[in-house]
Amino acid sequence: MINNNTQQVKAYLAGVNLDDPGFDYSMSELAALAEANNYEVVGQASQKAENVVASTYLGKGKVAEIRDLAQGLGAKVLIVNDELTPVQIRNLEHITKLRVIDRTELILEIFSSRARTRQAKLQVELARLEYELPRLHPSENSLDQQRGNGGAAGGGGFANRGAGESKLELNRRTIGKQISAIKRELREVADQEAVKAARRKASSVPKVALVGYTNAGKSTTMNGLLREFGGGAVRGRDGARERSKEVLAKDMLFATLDTSVRRIDLGDGITFILSDTVGFVSKLPHKLVDSFKATLQEAKDADLLINVVDASDPNMNQMIKTTLAVLDEIGITGRPMITAYNKADLTGRAYPQVEGGDLLYSAEDPASIKALAGLITRRLFSGYGEVTLVLPLAEAGRSLAYLHARSKVVSERYSGDGVHVVARLSPADKERFGQYVVAADADA
Ligand SMILES: Nc1nc2c(ncn2[C@@H]2O[C@H](COP(=O)(O)OP(=O)(O)OP(=O)(O)O)[C@@H](O)[C@H]2O)c(=O)[nH]1
Ligand SMILES: [Mg+2]
């Protein structure tokens, strides 16, 4: 846990702008990430360049300038906007006499301090160790004490930075062993999860996943749907029974690091499984995305994605791009998606408002949640309809068992020519039982 009583460590930010139109946005994101990690941002500098400098990331003159500015402002830490090589970190620390933290380490620290469940903790730890392994070196500017108390993550931190040269080989070997052990443990957790996920996948209940930029309101949206239509807790990612159906929603980056799965029952036999998962940020470290694969599996299995966007944020369009890029990286493309523009109450626009397949809404507003539910229903269940079937007696038993498990059976009546069944079927099941359909309703 971050201890707010201790003094914040002052940090200076720096970034190289490779003619990237999203550069300013990524710097403001970096500031938010630093603040989320309890650093006090005292200033920032950037440099336009065609390439980063291999030895020092920024140009030598810029580094000297930053050193003077940052030291003048009392900064102890220099946070840079990209992932650095071990050599760049070492050289920058040598010249600036500041503790240097790159964007990846910053994100890992936040994840580390937020992880609660065993799976999330293991996943973060794995990404952290894999990041740390090639970077072990004796720090010249040991700030481990400040880091331990203030800005740094509580989950162990990057303590090896302060290690002496003689300890390095030992540390490398120890870390190698830790990585193997964590991977083993994660496989066990993943196996248990996979069994449950496979069971859900096999069931015909459609799956909807909330995805999107961190702090957009995914968890608030899930809680809104639970409040209006909660059909009961399914389970938490830690496998424990949920004490409450609702999930943690909080004004902070990466409040959610796990996946929660809940059943939503809209009535009339319309049920779907909803999942809420970790949020995204741009330049999310590949190792982290990689180690969170199990957590993101639920989104991969979803029939419909709800991309929750903070419509009150001036960087909204960048955030949408970021989300699509991360989804692409985990291999989720071309999936049916509703873009849900949240926090409409902060935009001054009228809401809820459905436009095409998308929605402007507020997750805290019951009418908005109902509009979202309506939209989900339309997207998920279009093509569903009530049909009357006459099942031949010879195979009625098996077919009825199937229909009861996978659809809403409205009525069934035995007669000489077979079993007359009225049921609400998916398009696929309508086709499957096509030869027995005697009447079909055109409703959606
Ligand atoms: N004004 C306003 N605030 C909202 C709305 N929806 C969510 N929030 C606030 O936005 C903050 C973030 O909400 P969460 O639901 O935790 O966001 P999230 O997308 O789950 O974020 P992470 O789990 O951190 O990725 C909280 O403080 C919410 O109260 C809304 O419609 N209007
Ligand atoms: Mg959340």
Structural class computed from helices and strand pairing: alpha/beta
Coarse morphology? elongated
Uncertain spans:
141-157, 232-243
User: In CATH's first tier, which class of the largest domain applies?
Assistant: Alpha Beta
CATH fold label of the largest domain: Rossmann fold
Heteromolecules bound: guanosine-5'-triphosphate, magnesium ion
Computed CA radius of gyration, to the nearest angstrom: 26 Å
**SSE run:** EHEHEHEHHHHEHEEEHHEHEEEHEHEEHE
How is this structure best summarized?
The protein has 444 residues and is of the alpha/beta class. The chain is 42% helix and 23% strand. Magnesium ion is lined by residues 218-219, 255-256.
Structural notes for this entry:
The structure is a single chain. The protein is an alpha/beta fold and 444 residues long. The protein folds into 3 domains: 9-117 and 135-167, 3-Layer(aba) Sandwich (Rossmann fold), CATH 3.40.50; 204-381, Rossmann fold, CATH 3.40.50; 385-440, 2-Layer Sandwich (Alpha-Beta Plaits). The chain contains 14 helices and 16 strands. The strands form 3 sheets. The protein has an 8-stranded mixed sheet with strand order 6-7-8-5-9-10-12-11. Helix 1 runs parallel beside helix 4. Guanosine-5'-triphosphate is lined by residues 214-220, 249-251, 253-256, 279, 308, 342-343, 345-346, 362-364. One of its GO terms (cellular component) is cytoplasm. GO terms for molecular function: GTP binding; GTPase activity; metal ion binding; ribosome binding. Monomer. Associates with the 50S ribosomal subunit.
